[in-house]
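request received
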Amino acid sequence: MSDVRVRFAPSPTGPLHIGGVRTALYNYLFSKKHGGKMLLRIEDTDQTRFVPGAENYILEALQWVGITIDEGPTQGGPHAPYRQSERKPMYRAYAEQLIAEGNAYYAFDTEEELEAMKERLKAAKVASPSYNMVTRMQMNNSLTLPEDEVKRRLDNGEAYVIRLKVPRKEEIRLNDLIRGWVVVHSSTIDDKVLLKSDGMPTYHLANIVDDHLMGITHVIRGEEWLPSAPLHVLLYRFLGWESTMPKFAHLPLLLKPDGNGKLSKRDADAGGFPVFPIDWKVPGTEDTWIGFRDQGYLQEAVVNFLAFLGWNPGTQEELFTMEQLIQEFSIERIGKSGTKFDINKAKWYNQQYLRLKSDAELQQLMESVLQAEGVSYDSTTIGAISLLLKERVTFAQDFWTEGKFFFQAPLSYDSAVASSKWNSDAIQVSKALQDKLQSHTGDLSPETAKHLFHEVLDEQGIKIGKVMQAVRLAITGVGAGPDLMHIISILGKDETVQRLQSALSTLSETVKP
RNA sequence: GGCCUGUUCGUCUAGGGGUUAGGACGCAUCCCUUUCACGGAUGAAACACGGGUUCGAUUCCCGUACAGGCUACCA
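response:
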């Protein structure tokens, strides 16, 4: 399998769904594992659904995730173009070849006629009304119309489509890499449109033609394609390409976190989490659909999270870099069943990867978060703070939410803590600590701060547990956070004294000792 | 409705004819700690159901239920 060639083939109809990103990732991992090529093909055969900006979105999303494309619309390649709309002229010949060999036919039926046919069948209690081997003989097509009539209509430029002539009774089998043998009877397949009346191929034709022409060896795609896979097998056969037909692997779908159904944007809105890789600004509106990247998720966390949604290496390890994933990936270890989307796991991965960052990276992360908040501070201090906060953050932006008291004195005090902890002892200790710090000269290391604080406690004869949280509240405004002595040390003598002072006046007013 | 696919703790999953059915997320309790977090320990928690096959089925087969997908001149 040294010449593995796979492709990711999205439609530019909107932002790439996170499930699509996973499909792209599996394709990428598989191709790199085998030293093969990864192609990107834009399937824009439905001109009514084309959304401007969608292709760029796909490119940007893949790039962020770290999926590199070997051949595609931007990098070109031996099988260019890689946009199906630009390949339009190539498809008709194959459809006509199928007609010439008796495996397809022209159909002239109007929308109304098709509708009427379906109604008629429905009234006759036919289970699934469709254009197939029995109904096609009652419609207007080159199978029912006299040859000269067909020619006349064609010459007149009448609208037509080309439909596949599905064999009457035949078992079509397909050996899916994930699901094993799938057998479908041809009588359950309808005469799918191959070439639309606007001259564009449908997915089915374009897909098979392109995959063949581009030398695709493995088709890894979502399970929603499984029902039409037998149809694709039929096309490979009729086109004479069965011996080089790619192997198929149909991936399980990503499902809603709770309840039933596949994961949708609705779930994202309800759960407050993203289902898109990066932000999508909906054209013509002010709306933005949130993406993982812009919500503060790390690229490596998303990759790891996505890879494990339906695949696992069979070991107990869970933290894998892209390189390791490539090393370990195998289609055999992809699961069969649908996977519910649990954002908690994604958060956990993010926390893990954030913690794996070097001190310098952490500092940089925190600096950019502060910058976004309009806060500037000296780098050394930020470095120290980021280390203090390291074990407490899940997202980089938590550096701000968890540590804003380093940069601004409390504007208010957590009332629950205030009412239970702020008492006469707390006031006494705060006053004494204020005085003690005031008269202190020289450096204020965490150790020194601790020493001073204990001196105060000893002098006042008060146990540490009785007042610690109150003092923390006075200095930070909240009841929880990193080691208070480190906070005091970073804040410095003057700032700490000042904060104790304002706490003493503000809190004493509102809370009775 | 028809066709296709699936079903191990709440979730992601390992496993596979005989196991105390393992791990992770989440949850709970305890320890550490001035607090919270981290960390550590412990705990609750699963083989959808019914038939077969078998000495023995969670594992194999068949049904049923449930779930998902498809059923467009959309992909």
